[in-house]
Every structure is written in C-alpha cells, then in structure tokens.
Design brief:
The chain is mostly beta strands. Helices cover 12% and strands 42% of the residues. The protein has helices at 6-10, 43-63, 149-155; strands spanning 66-77, 81-91, 95-102, 106-113, 117-122, 130-134, 167-171, 174-182, 188-196, 201-209, 214-225, 232-241, 246-251, 254-257, 274-276. The protein has a 15-stranded mixed sheet that branches. The radius of gyration is 18 Å and the shape is globular.
C-alpha cells in the first residue's frame, strides 16, 4: 500500500493560495514538546487524584450523543497562512463528517466515517481520488493519524475515558493518561490524554512515537458549557502536526448538541475515482 503523506495531500492547496508569510512557533500549549511519558504514579495516587475527576468527565460526556458545528473558522499555518471554513458533524460512536471549503475555490476536503468505513478526499490531489477503508483494516492503510476521522473525533474531548490497561503520569499540575498502541503505519506509539482534575476537563490528546517524540497534538484552548447537557464543549482547538510543520487553529461558532441528524450525512460521497485502502 502506498503511503498517504499528510503534508503533501491535505494542504497542498496552500501553494495555490496566497496570504502572508509567517514565522509560527509550533509548540503545544499545555505541555512541553519534550515531555517524557513514563509511568510514575502509585495506585493509591491514581485512585485519589484522577479517578473521581474522570468519573465526572465521563458522566458529562455521556450526555453528548452528537454535535453539529456550523461555519467553523479554520486557520491553516505552514509557510503561509490560509483561512478556510468548515462544517463538522459527529454522532457517537463512529459517525463523523468534516467538510472544509475556501471562500474562492469551494469545497477542498471531505473526511468522514460511518459504522462500516471511513474516507478521505481532497480536491488538490492529482487525480482527486477518494480513499476509503473498512474500520477493521485501519492498520493496513498506512494512513497517518491526522487524516483518520476517529482520531479527530477523539480529539474533541467528548468521548468517555477508559482506564483499563492505562499508565499515568503527573505533568506539572496536570495528569496524563497514557496508552500504548500501533499506528496505521505499523510503528509503536503512545497516546496521552491530558486532564485538568481541578476543572474536570480534557485538555488535549498527544501522539508520540516510540522515541517519545511528538507526532501530532490536539489541544482544546477554550470550552463553553452546553445548556442542553451541562457539558464542556470545545470552542477553540489547536492542532499541530510536527513532522509536516503544520498547525491548524479551529474556532467553533454555532454548536448544537443531540439534534436528529439525517442518515444521508454518513454516506460515502460519490467520486468517480475511488480506492479502497488496506484491502
């Protein structure tokens, strides 16, 4: 399977648009980039410091069954800065749709998932092929995490946190829940979820390689309380992909929770040229 490189596909349209040159210092907000994720907490500390907060977070997140975010403002920073817009729709556990467009060039990207498959399409690919795969074949696709809709869904901080087989680390005044996994490219990775136990908030999700170097991070800069569920909903998100030297700042304007969503939303888009990954 040919690797699908994030930098060359997702934001290749940066070279076709123009704005202003920037010098962006791409660093995570809540942790240091060099943070080493080692297990260093005893079970009694975990019980006392973390589990009660996570229980409260899970109770709130379980009330949120779906979200619709309209007219997201998205600023993409690489060598240039480009502003685009997006609509995000999510329904737990696997339904997801993110469409991104530019005010001049129209629809640029479609990333989605339903109960059976997930897909990715970008206008700027040559040719503009729609890549898709069954969920069970994710580890055969060579698809990097930032293109995976399940990763994006989990990065919103609205899923329940499972503590089974996890490790824990205190990072300054925050707490990280760490799991080991294999990426879709076959490498051993560590995924850390950062928790603020004083405010019962998920602050970020961090993907490390086996050498503890950051591959990608998604951090929730600000939240708002949803009046329907009394849950913390992301308002501003910062996403950084370190190898590609790209960051993306997302601001949500209108967010609706637990509305009925049409089943057609989760249908794979019709594209003349499609390729199944990992088959």
């Amino acid at each position: 399977m040919k690797k699908i490189y994030f930098g060359g596909i997702l934001f290749i349209f940066l070279s076709l648009l123009y704005n202003f040159i920037i010098n962006l210092d791409k660093k995570p907000i809540f942790i240091k980039k060099q943070t080493i994720l080692e297990k260093n907490l005893k079970e009694d500390e975990i019980e006392k410091k973390i589990k009660k907060s996570i229980q409260r977070i899970n109770e709130k997140n379980q009330r949120v069954k779906s979200i619709i975010a309209e007219n997201m403002f998205i600023k993409v920073n690489q060598r240039t800065s480009v502003s685009v817009f997006g609509n995000l729709t999510m329904e737990k556990p696997k339904n997801f749709r993110l469409k991104i467009w530019h005010s001049i060039t129209g629809i640029e990207m479609d990333i989605g998932s339903n109960q059976d498959i997930f897909w990715f399409w970008s206008k700027r690919m040559n040719p503009p092929i729609l890549y898709f795969s069954k969920h069970e074949n994710i580890n055969k696709t060579m698809l990097k995490a930032p293109l995976n809709p399940i990763w994006i869904m989990e990065s919103l901080g609205l899923n329940s946190i499972d503590l089974k087989d996890k490790e824990f680390k205190k990072i300054e005044d925050k707490w990280a829940i760490i799991e080991k996994n294999k990426s879709s490219t076959g490498e051993l990775v560590r995924i850390a979820t950062l928790i603020d136990i004083e405010r019962d908030l998920i602050l970020g999700k961090y993907l490390y390689n086996n050498s503890f170097n950051l591959i990608a991070s998604t951090e929730i800069k600000t939240t708002t309380i949803d009046p329907n569920t009394d849950s913390s909903i992301p308002k501003e998100i910062l996403i950084i992909w370190y190898d590609e030297n790209i960051s993306m700042e997302c601001k949500f304007s209108k967010i609706h929770t637990n509305l009925k969503i049409k089943e057609q939303t989760w249908e794979r888009p019709f594209v003349k040229n499609s390729l199944e990954m990992g088959n």
